Task: inverse folding
């Protein structure tokens, strides 16, 4: 329903205007304006104030409505461009040929555009380079002799921040659509179902320009394609879904309802994701096994029982592209208190007997690994297998950093990667998983640049010029999600990252960890494309990566901030400015760099974890 944008006159003014009008009409030669053209002029834009959400509008990427800031009413449009999408929102409007129209609206932000295309004469647009507060944009156009509809649009510019729009209007004579709303969609069915999401698809409808997806009768999404994933759902809950087709004439009747029950949060032995007997809440840490630094060397046998997963850092390649991984323990000259190989292997067996998992971590800051060929892939499999077998390890951690992973220019779909270094890594990890079976533990520790940055940018982008490493871990995670035991993204040594609230979040507080983890557990459109959604992971597959101390890395937070993050994500209490899309009591736990640095800091990180989860060790 359109909102009336005119402010009502006060009663006193109404009486004065009425009296003046009566007086004027009583004068000789003065008549009422009855021109048909004037009488036909009206605001013919549908839902220009966004009071009905995005009803009538089709938006690419991240378009949504917000409650603040607004110019009037209770809602306004917010959209955030990415490196490959200018966050355009459009509406096709019926018009009359050979007619004059005035397009107007209020915007906020940098490089915000308002325009009309398909006018039949000269398409028009107007823009502002910067508007810190609401700024009005206005332009006019005349339709051509055969023009019966035009497309109104607003958008930002690639890679800039979020923009806002409100109170858009198109004033002129209304046209006849000459068409009816589309038929109701058919063939609605579910696809992949997780504990927090349901994938949907349906049969295309002739004449539809977009589709509205309803969850339990409430509008959930507007999409242009015939499939989507509804995220942010609760586990073990039944939902009803419908879809309606939309064109310029309106919205169709809703489809038949399809129901789906989300999965439970259960992981554990024998389950998906590399079923292992990890505790419900696990503490993961890296042990400096091949080097020493300011934290000093810590013997494996001296690692406290609180640590459930111990990643031996690091196995490194003989060269960047060889795929030949070697694990060389710290030399005595660098680590004078190092244990013998026999003592080291005995400590591994003792940890395993106590229910702990000991993994070899591949990569790290200095261990660049690029599997550019199938030969390198095969060498990777054989050399990693040799390390696992030699030491009797439980599995593998992938800590590829720097330039290990990047995407070729034509590799744009995370679900179907084509870049050799990505395809070969996926193949190698699947081979290792198949070789060692269900108990094989597979974890990953990517940086935010390679995962959450994919919400804005993916690879080189539509127009090229972006860093090809953006989001490059996403195809690896997605292809191995059924084999993945844990993903613990490094929420440290990171620049600002945009969250699902389309705001940038920086290290140093609980909000950063909350926003980054919410993205993994909710899923997100890759590069802002609502038809290309990275599905959420199960909460038992996710741990939050944090530095153990200020010495360990940038982004360290105090124990109280760690507690805030856990409270918000697992209980939805003690939250800050970021609003999560769910509550995940089954969140697996925390990862830290590193065990050595935590020992250097008097085990503060470990003690806080134990206290929070009541482990009392």
Result:
């Amino acid at each position: 329903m359109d909102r009336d944008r005119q402010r009502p006159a006060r009663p006193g003014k109404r009486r004065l205007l009425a009296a003046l009008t009566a007086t004027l009409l009583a004068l000789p030669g003065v008549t009422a304006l009855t021109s048909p053209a004037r009488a036909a002029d009206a605001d013919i834009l549908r839902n220009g104030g966004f009071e009905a959400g995005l009803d009538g509008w089709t938006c690419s990427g991240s378009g949504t409505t917000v409650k603040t800031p607004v110019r009037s009413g209770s809602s306004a449009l917010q959209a955030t461009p990415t490196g490959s999408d200018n966050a355009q929102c459009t509406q096709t409007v019926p018009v009359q040929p050979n007619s004059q129209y005035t397009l107007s609206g209020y915007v906020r932000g940098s490089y915000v555009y308002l325009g009309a295309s398909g006018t039949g004469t000269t398409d028009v647009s107007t823009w502002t380079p910067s508007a810190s507060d609401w700024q009005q944009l206005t332009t006019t156009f005349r339709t051509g002799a055969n023009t019966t509809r035009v497309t109104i649009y607003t958008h930002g510019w690639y890679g800039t921040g979020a923009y806002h729009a409100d109170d858009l209007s198109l004033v002129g004579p209304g046209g006849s659509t000459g068409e009816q709303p589309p038929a109701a969609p058919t063939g609605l069915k579910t696809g992949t179902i997780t504990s927090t999401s349901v994938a949907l698809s349906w049969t295309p409808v002739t004449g539809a320009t977009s589709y509205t997806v309803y969850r339990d009768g409430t509008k959930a999404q507007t999409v242009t394609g015939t499939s989507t994933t509804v995220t942010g759902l609760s586990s073990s809950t039944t939902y009803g879904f419908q879809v309606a087709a939309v064109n310029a004439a309106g919205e169709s009747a809703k489809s038949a309802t399809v129901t789906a029950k989300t999965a439970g949060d259960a992981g554990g032995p024998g389950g998906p994701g590399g079923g292992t007997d990890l505790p419900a809440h696990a503490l993961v840490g890296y042990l400096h096994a091949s080097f020493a630094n300011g934290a000093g060397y810590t013997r494996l046998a001296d690692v406290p029982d609180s640590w459930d997963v111990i990643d031996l850092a690091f196995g490194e390649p003989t060269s960047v592209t060889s795929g030949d991984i070697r694990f060389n323990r710290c030399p005595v000259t660098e680590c004078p208190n190092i244990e013998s190989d026999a003592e080291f292997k005995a400590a591994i067996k003792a940890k395993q007997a106590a229910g702990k998992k000991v993994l070899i971590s591949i990569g790290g800051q200095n261990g660049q690994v690029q599997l550019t060929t199938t030969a390198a892939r095969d060498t990777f499999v054989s050399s990693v297998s040799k390390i696992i077998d030699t030491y009797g390890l439980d599995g593998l951690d992938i800590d590829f950093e720097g330039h290990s992973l990047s995407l070729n220019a034509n590799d744009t779909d995370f679900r179907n990667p084509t870049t050799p270094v990505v395809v070969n890594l996926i193949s190698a990890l699947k081979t290792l998983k198949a070789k060692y079976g269900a108990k094989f533990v597979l974890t990953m520790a990517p940086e935010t640049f390679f995962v959450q940055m994919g919400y804005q940018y993916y690879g080189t982008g539509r127009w090229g010029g972006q860093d090809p490493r953006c989001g490059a871990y996403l195809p690896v995670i997605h292809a191995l999600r059924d084999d993945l035991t844990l993903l613990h993204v490094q929420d440290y040594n990171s620049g600002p990252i945009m969250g699902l609230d389309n705001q940038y979040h920086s290290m140093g507080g609980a909000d950063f960890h909350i926003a980054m983890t919410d993205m993994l557990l909710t899923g997100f459109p890759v590069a802002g494309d609502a038809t290309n959604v990275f599905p959420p992971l199960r909460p038992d597959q996710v741990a939050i990566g944090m530095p153990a101390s200020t010495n360990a890395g940038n982004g360290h937070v105090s124990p109280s901030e760690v507690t805030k993050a856990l409270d918000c994500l697992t209980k939805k209490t003690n939250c800050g400015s970021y609003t999560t899309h769910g509550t995940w009591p089954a969140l697996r736990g925390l990862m830290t760099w590193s065990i050595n640095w935590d020992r250097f800091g008097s085990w503060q990180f470990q003690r806080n974890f134990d206290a929070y989860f009541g482990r009392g060790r």
